[in-house]
Amino acid sequence: MKTEVIAEPELEFGGGGTHIDIRYGLRDYGPLDITEPDAPKNIAVALIGTNETIEAASRWLEKCGGGVRAKKSRRVHLFPAFPGFGTQKNLPGVAITDRLIRPISKRDIDALAARRRTDSLVRNAAELFLTEARHVTEQAKPSVIICLPPPNLMAALDPEPMAFRRRKRLAAASLEASEDKVVVPPPDFHDVLKAEGMSLPAPIQMMRVETYDPAKPRSQRTRSDRVAPLQDEATRAWNLYTALYYKAGGTPWRVRRVSTALTTCYVGVSFYKTREGDRLMTSIAQVFNELGDGVVVRGGPATIEKNDRQPHMTDEASADLLRQALKTYRTEHHTLPARLVVHKTSSFNKAELEGFAREAKEADVEWVDLVSVRKSRTRLFRAASLPPLRGTFMSLDDRVHLLYTRGTVDFFETYPGLYVPRALEMRCDSVESTPAALATEILALSKMDWNNTQFDRGEPVTIRVARQVGNILRQIPPSGVVQPRYSYFM
Predict the structure, then answer these.
(1) Does residue 26 sit within a domain?
(2) Is the same domain home to 225 and 265?
(3) Average pLDDT, the chain
């Protein structure tokens, strides 16, 4: 066994500026495309909610424009201040006009909140917001539509009683168990809202009340000790702004690219069950090279193999999935990539290896890396008070390797997580690159999350996005509209 620590990958921002931390890079250099003529200059956002939530959110967005102080902490790098946005800042402004505000009657909200939590309640609540979203997009052209459900409605929509939690656990386990155990998780309001809002001309951003008004009680679900602690205000501002900028069509940052590196198409493959629970489908989230601009392609059916209890595709389904992905890549870039990387949540079986290899050869993509990525049960222990360093890489054999994408970060001078981190298991099923190079790439892709600016995420964006996409695709019928841009799913 061999162990090493991979250096923290740098990201590139406006004007070619680089930094390992997203927030410092954006503060000092601005978004990557800030000088481009088609980059967002003033993000027009629509607000939909009750008069109370609209007023509170507007107030908080105005405050963010002037900047938010850093959280008081000895770990100054972990909690940087939010610099604000607008004319005198490196971050373009956010605009709200009267035409972009659409209040929902409190009476209608209260009527829904008084009902028992059912699947139809979730869909009725989503339709209430989508009706107003359609009205506002007919009158104006927002870049992003922000939905602001009030606390009483959210309490009714996701109380998370034990029965629902059990259904979710069984649904997740059913992908690892048997195809005969058909378990459908309860619909999530966020997922239904995004799924049924695919036909809108702008993507949706949902904001819970605690984001902009932490004095309001949070949805406690079943047990108060299970509610994740609220992030500090500056971090919430960073995360929201980055999401809005990306959804408005901007590119906040990218992985710093070596001039000799091959142009690469990254594909993440995950699996989900249909809403009816009768079929196991394939979800794919395609991430265009180092810019991280995701395009979604819906895959075909998959089955669970009895010999390894994991979901797999046939060779034809694998080839068709890759064919669609490469076609989308070519449409976007007017050329095919020199290299293809596929990250998958289950191991590659013989049929999948043959299907991907055949299609890559037909497309003249010679450099192909097929890597399965999952959480490992093996943990490393460090002779220190903190967990292993982020970037710790260990080879167990020629095929199987461990990588800590969460762990102690020297720049933060601490481990920023709440629980003991778990390493990712990388299984190199068929690769051209070295395991260390693939691990470095996965570490960099863990920083390509437009929803979170604290860069120590647990999974590469390929896998995380594919999983998120599957949750929303489950709510879309086969004949439904599926937007190709990932911004509609995040």
Answers:
(1) no
(2) no
(3) 88
